[in-house]
Design goal:
Elements lengths: L5 E5 L6 H14 L9 E5 L2 H14 L3 E5 L16 H6 L2 E6 L2 H7 L3 H13 L3 E6 L3 H6 L2 H12 L5 H4 L3 E4 L13 H19 L1 H6 L1 E4 L8 H5 L6 E4 L6 H9 L3
Parallel strand pairs: 1-2, 1-8, 2-3, 3-4, 4-5, 5-6, 6-7
Helix pairs in contact: 1-2, 1-12, 7-9
The structure holds 1,3-dihydroxyacetonephosphate.
1,3-dihydroxyacetonephosphate binds next to strand 8.
Function: Involved in the gluconeogenesis. Catalyzes stereospecifically the conversion of dihydroxyacetone phosphate (DHAP) to D-glyceraldehyde-3-phosphate (G3P).
Pathway: Carbohydrate degradation; glycolysis; D-glyceraldehyde 3-phosphate from glycerone phosphate: step 1/1; Carbohydrate biosynthesis; gluconeogenesis
Protein name: Triosephosphate isomerase
């Protein structure tokens, strides 16, 4: 089955409100409407930038989705500092990144919390971009696939095939994030293939065949072609290179 590629920008903690408007406008200006239907494009700005970014894309009728970088599973209440799914939906988010290694590493997010977030998103009709990936120590120990596939199983616990089908998995080796050290296409393909096999065990071959698996970690205009040419890599989750409209647009074009 031919999966439609997804090119997603994770802006992380970058861009003030004003800067977000400028970047969204540049992306919108450079988006070519002939790409619609061939590649999905998503940006995940900081919470405060979601609405201004969405307003730019909506005004221009540019089919770029917006998603959050994180979410809390309770719909409302006394959870100071958190953002709920209804809040994200109302500003036009279709999805949220869940379990990014920076959240797992700096903010202590556990596999159980990742799972609660994924369940809450799919219950609300949104989709999750579930991030998984190993540290250098795990890679050196030779247990990468075991580690990453255990993260996938934990994230999707209690989720049925129909709900999972809308979700995306992003393989982001921690040692490749923001380091300029990309996984080789062979390394990335091997892990993405193992992820798809795990999805097949959980949800059946047909659903696994339809789910998108992205690569993330120093993906840039120089290495994107080789990475997205791999049979189990269906696009990218981009940090640094998504902050420059011209580079992000090049990455989108590489998926066509
Ligand atoms: O963490 C990432 C995307 O979520 C990848 O970041 P970089 O593209 O900056 O390495």
């Amino acid at each position: 089955m031919a999966r439609k590629p997804l090119m997603a920008g994770n802006w992380k903690m970058n861009n003030t409100y004003g800067e977000a408007v400028v970047l969204a406008q540049e992306i919108s200006n450079n988006y070519n409407k002939s790409w619609t239907g061939k590649v999905d494009v998503l940006v995940c700005p900081p919470y405060i930038d979601l609405k201004p970014a969405k307003t730019v894309f909506e005004f221009d009728r540019t089919p770029v989705e917006i998603g959050a970088q994180n979410v809390y599973w309770e719909p409302k209440g006394a959870f100071t500092g958190e953002i709920s799914i209804p809040m994200l939906k109302e500003v036009g988010c279709t999805c949220s990144i869940v379990g990014h290694s920076e959240r797992r590493g700096y903010f202590g997010e556990t596999n159980e919390e990742v799972n609660r977030k994924v369940r809450a998103l799919v219950d609300a009709g949104m989709y999750a971009i579930v991030c998984v990936g190993e540290s250098l120590a795990v890679r050196d120990a030779g247990t990468t696939e075991e580690f990453v596939c255990a993260q996938v199983r934990a994230a999707f616990a209690g989720i049925d095939a129909q709900e999972a089908q809308r979700c995306v998995v992003a393989y982001e080796p921690i040692w490749a994030i923001g380091t300029g050290r990309t996984a080789t296409p062979e390394q990335a393909q091997a892990v993405c293939h193992a992820i798809r096999q795990t999805l097949a065990e959980l949800f059946g071959a047909q659903v696994a065949d339809e789910m998108r698996v992205l690569y993330g970690g120093s993906m840039n205009v120089g290495n994107v072609e080789m990475l997205v040419a791999q049979p189990d890599i269906d696009g990218g989750l981009i940090g640094g290179a998504s902050l420059k409209a011209d580079q992000f647009i090049q990455l989108v074009k590489a998926c066509l």
